[in-house]
Amino acid sequence: MQVLHIPDERLRKVAKPVEEVNAEIQRIVDDMFETMYAEEGIGLAATQVDIHQRIIVIDVSENRDERLVLINPELFRKKAAKQALKKVACRSLNNVL
Q: Which Enzyme Commission numbers does its entry carry (predicted)?
């Protein structure tokens, strides 16, 4: 998988909800973790690798052994989320922030 970078317009596409967690979604999740680790990141959204489904993978552990998968996540406090995003290291925003 290749990580998209700004100004790539594909990053603006709205991700669709995952309807069913099946073997294909598991393959996508596995590939996303592999890509995230290769990029030395701590999180990756499917849209960042040109897959427009609501999937996020995260691993902030030192040993890279505590995987977290978010399927169809929702934010409830938009203002707090916007403030948090200002502090996040995003692989698609290399040298932008």
A: 3.5.1.88
